[in-house]
Amino acid sequence: LVVSIDLGTSKSAVASNQVFTSLSSSTDVIVFPGHREQAGRKMDTAILLRKATLEPIAFGVAANRQYRNIGDEGNVMYFEWFKMHLAGLKNSNEAVIIQDAKGKDCDLIDVISAALLYLSDAVVSTYHQWNSKGQRPHKSAIFWVLTVPVIWSPAAQVVMLRAAIRAGMIESDVSQNIRFINEAEAAAHTVVATPQFPSSFQKSSGFRFGVLDLGGGTADLTLLEITSESPLKVREFRRCDGIPVGATNVDQQFQEMLCDIFGSERFEKMKRYVSFLDVMDQFESGKVLFRHDETSRDPRVIRFRALFSEYDEQHEDIPYKTFSEDVKRFAASSSDHSNLSARSTNLLIPHDTWKVWFDTVISNILPLLARNTSQNDFTFMYLVGGFSQSPYVFARVKEYLNCLGIEVAQHPKPDVAIVLGSVHAQVREAVTGRCAPYNYGIWVRTQYVPEKHLEEKIEVDCRGIKKVSVFDQLVAQGQSISNGFTTPAKTYFAREDASAIIFTLVSIDWEDMSPSAVVYEFDERAKIHTEVRVEIEKSQPQVDRAVQLQLQFNGVPKMLVKDRAGKLIGSDSGVSLVAKAV
Question: Which residues, in sequence order, are CB contacts of 70 under 8 Å at separation 6+?
């Protein structure tokens, strides 16, 4: 039983390789009881917790509705869009504090753990309810696949791993029943599993294409080449790329505008009211419907009456009395929003304001495309992700790529392509080669050679021998990783699915080396070092010991350290991640 959880920025979904309900087919999105209205679609990434215990009460639309019904009376915490607070995390041991809808602090890992607990519990109970044999699988018997954005650091993935342990999905960080897959690769598996392709898609060896995932918080891109026609298999010919930009950036611009209209102090208070969710729901409806060819249509109306009424009950300053003047003042001071207006308690958002918001987001996506199309080495692009369903976004991206001679098509199920693809990835691996996302190497101590070590810092060991610490590069960022490959003076072997590499090292000075192997991952673009320390047991006699490091780079940095005889002498249990700016 394989179950995938795509915990997205604004939308989430769960899928499996087995039929769960009468509303689900094989390898399809699981529809939980209480979420029937979202059959075949993703749930809102929203969770309601008991404040005292942080126990999950509801998820998705149900969480939103219950929070609105409870209001200020219940002792609860409500969270939306919490996942992307992990973006840019450098140290997995660093506490990330976020605020709920009322401004109360909470540790992010508690919120993610609660979300995974709710979803994994729902998987077990739904399977038990609909399975003809009445079986109730234990969580640890399920193989879990969790999706992560391309841009996430190993530290962020370690936090997700710890959250999965807290949720009871796995027993430890060395469990073999979990896999992390980046969203770009998951999308690639969905495309490969597509039963029908556009006529211009050449299903033949050597054909190159891209898959662009436009989601709520990130845009991820993978570039692939077909290596086998039957069965269809692909390999990355360039490393995955991504940026922290998505549909929620449109919402953020709307909220920034409201902050300018009402003033930061008043707006911060308004955001804490339940009726503010009604305002954002109205905005979401307008955002989904926005098109590039609707200049003649009337402005979208956002009604603030309920929010003003709730605010007036608590504060003496009454915003609706000056609302029209405040909007007029803002419009007069902004060239981008000069046609913005208000009528009574309604805000009227014209086409040109929507266009400014969307164009701001798209202006960040286009450089991602530009740097990956500069070599003119592919001619087809698949679009997936909820944001790609926006008529305006699809039209703008298609227009840009068509000008470069790249044909564009949208996947039949763009919003659930990631969660479905992550199931396909585990059931039938279709990506046979990847490109290393980082530079990988290990720090070792070696005897000082004046002619060779010109700039290294010299250290003297306890025997008076001069030593230097040098960086032994193992894999270069962007290097193609396939099943068995070589670089000068080194031979490496990858697993069949090419998601892990085994390095054989013989240059470690065991007598003087500190009791840990330090592998560095260096992202040239982000200019960040990530240091992965692996504790090594040194109980065996130090006799010409060679070491093998198995490093999984397509997910959580799982590392196994073995001696030449194959004895496990260290692992990444309790791995320490330390980031250093270069």
Answer: 76
3-state secondary structure 301-343: EEECHHHHHHHHCCCCCCHHHCHHHHHHHHHHHCCCCCCCEEE
| Segment holding 559, helix H or strand E | strand 559-563
Q: Where are the beta strands (DSSP E) in 184-340?
A: 208-214, 219-229, 232-243, 300-303
Q: How many residues are there in the chain?
A: 582
Instruction: Please state, in angstroms and rounded to a whole number, the distance separating the CA atoms of residues 392 and 255.
Output: 21
Which is it for the CA torsion 330, 332, 335, 341, positive or negative?
A: positive
CB 535, CB 514: distance < 8 Å? no
* Residues 18, 1 contacting (CB under 8 angstroms): yes
Site of tokens 């230097």: 468
User: How far are the Cα atoms of 194, 464, 490 from residue 479, in angstroms, in the given order?
Assistant: 28, 40, 14
Q: How far apart are CA 131 and CA 230, in angstroms?
A: 33
Q: Are 159 and 403 in contact (CB under 8 A)?
A: no
SS3 category, 110 = helix
pLDDT at 159 over 60: yes
pLDDT per residue as tens digits for the range 453-479: 888 888 887 788 888 877 767 777 787
